[in-house]
Amino acid sequence: xxxxxxxxxxxxxxxxxxxxxxxxxxxxxxxxxxxxxxxxxxxxxxxxxxxxxxxxxxxxxxxxxxxxxxxxxxx
Length: 75
Description:
The chain is an alpha+beta fold and about 80 residues long.
């Protein structure tokens, strides 16, 4: 399977998923259901965005994703 996996393509799919979560609308929900939906969307976006920001490589059949979680200096 490692020979078939394109880590860069996988990371791009996660970027697309993060973008889709961010852009999707909120269905007509009320009260606790609306909060649960919004909380889940936030978690989904975070998870997809983290993988989408990763750098991937495959060495000897082991997929390694590196994610820099340090704050960025936007000065």
